[in-house]
Amino acid sequence: MKHLVLGSNGQIGAHLVKYLINKKQQVFEWDILNEPFQDLRNNHSPILDAYIKDCDIVHFLAFDVGGAKYLEKHQDSYDFIWNNITIMSNTFDVLKQQKKPFIFASSQMAEMGYSSYGILKSLGEKMTHELGGIVARFWNVYGYEEIKEKSHVITDFIKMAKNDGVIKMRTDGTESRQFLYADDASEALLALSQNYKKIDKSQNYSITSFKWDKIYKIAEILDVLSSCDIIPGDKKDKTQRNAMNEPNNNIKKYWEPKTSLEEGIMKLYNLYD
């Protein structure tokens, strides 16, 4: 298959590209970090048209997003909302014109109406259903990434454990999440691609580990690996407000997760060596 990955340098996209190549799939990459003309906020791109025309399926992963610290700071800002509305408007318009099979990467936060990010993803889901694409809802995907403003909790904790010998948590760590290793997420996207024609497009497909773990457990796993100290914060989670939206099992006809949280963190910990 020929896959076009929009957002190919993102948290999921970068891992998906490597995974697809390893599986002998043909991959086209598209990301603002590659070339300025690949900014999906720009209106019409004949090059993008050509890429979409030539591929078999589009993975719509591009979004202005980051981990909890990024969302807490930016998700209610004009720029964050405008960036993502514009990315979706331009991209869905091209997908509608070309009638190309596509998978939209949504989030379990699409059910959180108090979150600007969640509302935006919910709108993207509605447009995807209208155009006959597949909605893939992700639960907290983690994998190798540059540790910057947009990085996520597991990589942030690894950096602190390795560099400082102490994990200083933003919250008290009692909030629960479902974490999914990036290779497992990539495998799920390939499975959806390969089964695209027979998949019920009216349903959402939860891509997750199907297992709840507290944030504090991540620190405890890293303590075993690095003998670091753990300092919990004194505040509760503001981003997801400890909401625990249960995933559906629709994806299990085609895929199930393989990597435990302990195994995934160990792999990631060693990668940062």
Number of strands: 12
Q: Treating each run of at least 4 consecutive H or I residues as one helix, how many helices?
A: 9
In terms of structural class, how would the helical and strand content be classed? alpha/beta
Output the helix-strand order: EHEHEHHEHEEHEEEHEEHEH
First-residue to last-residue Cα separation: 34 Å
CATH topology of the domain at 2-142 and 177-211 and 245-258: Rossmann fold
Level-2 CATH architecture of the domain at 2-142 and 177-211 and 245-258: 3-Layer(aba) Sandwich
CATH homologous superfamily descriptor of the domain at 2-142 and 177-211 and 245-258? NAD(P)-binding Rossmann-like Domain
| Spatial order of strands in the largest sheet | 2-1-3-4-5-10
Radius of gyration: 18 Å
Q: What is the CATH C level class of the domain at 2-142 and 177-211 and 245-258, in words?
A: Alpha Beta
The average pLDDT is 93
Estimated share of beta-strand residues = 15-25%
How do the strands and helices of this protein lay out in sequence?
Layout: E1 2-6, H1 13-22, E2 26-30, H2 46-54, E3 57-60, H3 68-74, H4 78-98, E4 102-107, H5 116-131, E5 134-138, E6 141-142, H6 153-163, E7 166-168, E8 176-177, E9 180-181, H7 182-194, E10 204-207, E11 213-214, H8 215-226, E12 229-231, H9 261-271
Parallel strand pairs: 1-2, 1-3, 3-4, 4-5, 5-10, 6-9, 7-12
Antiparallel strand pairs: 8-11
Helix pairs in contact: 1-7, 4-5, 6-8, 8-9
